[in-house]
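Take a look at the protein record below and flag anything odd:
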Amino acid sequence: MKVLLGIGLVIVLLVVLMILLPFLIDLNQYQPQYRPIIEDALNRKIELKDIQLTIVPRIGVRIAGFAVLDDPSFNSSPFASLTSLEVGVKLRPLLSKRVEVEEITLRNPLITVIKSRDGILNTSTLGKKGAPKAEGAAPAPEAPATEGPLRILALLAVDRVSITGGKLTYRDLSAAKPTEYVLQDLEFLIKNVGLGKTPSLHAATLVQPLNFPIKVDGTFGPLKETPDIETMDLAIALGKTIFAVKGSAVGGDANLTITSQVINSADLPLTLPLKKPVEVKDLHVAAEVKGRQARVHNLSFQIFNGQVKAQGGLTLDSPVAPFDGKVIVQGLQLEPALEAVGTGKVSVSGTAATELALHGRGFSKPELTQALEGTGHMAIKDGKLKGVNLMQEALTLLKVIGITQDNVKATAFSTIEGDIAIKHGVINLQRLLIDSHDFQAIALGTIGFDQTLNLRASLTLSEALSTQIASKTPAAKLVLTGGRIAVPLVITGSAQAPSYSLDTKAIGGKLQEQVKEQVKEKVGEILKSKSGEEALQKGQEALKQLFGR
């Protein structure tokens, strides 16, 4: 009985000691030793209200009121702060004089990232000495970095690292109209952290003012002392859209495969120049980054019932961002595509296919207008030019009367096909063939990125229609060749407000050819005359016919 009482007393004393231990040991007295080390590592002043041992719910350390002050040139408020940082250790290894971290918890962290009017981020001097550099400035050559959060995680041996609550604010003061975005309701949990281990990750947040949720789940690793990631397998949810991202990042190079079943433009927090939402299906991207070169080996997706495939390359870390690529489109339905873009009065329906080889620099409209170049081939089957009736325009210009035509403002066609070239903001139609029920046409000329038209077209009408027009309008015989009327047109204006006129130069050339042929024919008849009197009579008749006409 005495033995049991003794054991019980020892246990009670141990429990009391454990409860009193945090109050008996004051870790704050050691702040003068570790505070300068932390401040020197961060290149920031820090604030720390209290640090104490914890016994319940686990043995460890709790740091309360921790804050990292901002660079004074940016802000007098803290760059980062948190309510508490809790580090829990495992008991059994501790009894063997080994420290193994079981869990690290950050509660309610608040982080503020600021971009100054000069384009400099307040993170640019975090952990670094010297003057801050503007964002995008060319860095001096240096050895590959081995520091960073991944290395810190790799060197830790911890079961769980978590963040509960808190928010991250990004404030851009360099824009003409300062903007601010906030990641609120932060969730972060990473398990199985340590060298040689493959952690699992969960992160989630709500982006304001867009009210847009983002969530990431998956695994990556194994962790090393370098930032290399041999494998990653992540599911990234951007609102209602889910992307599967797999790949690796080793030695500064990366290989990625990105897939998504459905992407709807209405679910993305982007302001796109669209009148209607667009749905992309079966997205597949295979890409790699080597040094400053990014290459998309395969990009494919379905849109407007058609298939799009592309490949190309881009030079990173360059203000002008040179790129090249090849695009193949098959089976694209033009009518819903143009309705989504909002083309206005004139649009095209039908099933489109194209192949384009492109290269250029930059991605803004002025940059693309100046530098984008390319060549390709296009074809549209079984469609309509809506808002344009080419037959009606041709007959009006010929002043044809008595021919019944459909008053519908559209031109039905079975095929539009031709080669195109792009340069300096202009699309050059090198030879565009249009095949319709009542005519065939060949068009040449240019269409500007600003939709300016400068085209010449020749409409060759069907034999039946040509005969009908020639019988009612003698002037139409001027453009009659081989039993078919060819109407030369000049099309100017814009794609939304085209203007039509007869190509008088082409008509004059055609008339000149006809006169030459008739002169040759009449001269031949005159030369066959049996007498001078007969030749003179035939010559007079020929001159009357030619000049009378």
